[in-house]
Amino acid sequence: MKVRSTYSKYSKVPGSTGATGYDVARRILDAHGLYDVQIEEIRGVLSDHYDPRSKVVRLSSDIYHGHSLAAIAVAAHECGHALQDQEDYAFLRFRSALVPLASFGSNISWILIIAGIFFTMTNLLLLGIIFMAFAVLFQVVTLPVEFNASSRAMNQVVELGLIRNEEESGARKVLNAAAMTYVAAAAVAVIELLRFILMYVAMNDD
Question: Can you say whether the dihedral through the CA atoms of 161, 19, 146, 57 is positive or negative?
Fold first, then answer.
């Protein structure tokens, strides 16, 4: 709700430079010699992301063509991930390495956990918890990646003159709101994991 309300507010505030999200992304990438990183338009709302495997920044239509502070901030944030990739940022590498385990763990863990609870089989429940832990670890590792990308984005839009001084507050609010969605997701994931761990302990006590 926070990110959507903040995005909605600042998507109505035009940037003073008139640059689109595409323009902003291209400026940031070119300033760091990332001429080979492509920028693609994709469908969806706030579906923007950077693909480190294909070396592509993908921007939703509103961001790609938008002139707003929100478009500028979001486009810059995704370029922040491209800069992390260029510098071989440790947390980004770690997160990328976790993707297969996190994806598999997220899919299989619930089956094992439900089966373990339903059939009162603690070994199955424990296995499900272990697989879920990989997905939770992915969420936790995502936090420094996202906050660092937002920090880089803010620095870039200021240094390259893509926003003016009076616009910094609005751009920062968009970036902070976006980062906080990952905090919420990580918190929910950790609490869920702890809930099943307590359930496992209780079943063993019984």
Answer: negative
Q: b or e along 39-49 (b: 16 or more beta carbons within 10 Å of the residue's beta carbon)?
A: beeeeeeeebe
Among residues 18, 36, 34, the alpha carbon closest in space to that of 72 is found at: 18
| Of 180, 150, 169, the residue nearest 75 (C-alpha) | 150
pTM, rounded to two decimals: 0.89
Catalytic residue chosen out of the listed positions 78, 159, 167, 168: 78
Q: Measure the CA–CA gap between 21 and 38, rounded to whole angstroms.
A: 13
Quick check: is 167 catalytic?
no
Q: How far is CA 17 from the centre of its chain?
A: 27
Which residues constitute the domain of residue 107?
A: 2-205
State how many domains the chain has. Answer: 1
Q: Taking the chain (206 residues) in consecutive chunks of 10 residues, what is each chunk's mean pLDDT?
A: 86 95 98 98 93 96 96 97 97 94 93 93 95 96 96 97 96 90 91 96 85
Closest CA to 142 of 190, 92, 187: 92
103/117 Cα distance (integer angstroms): 22
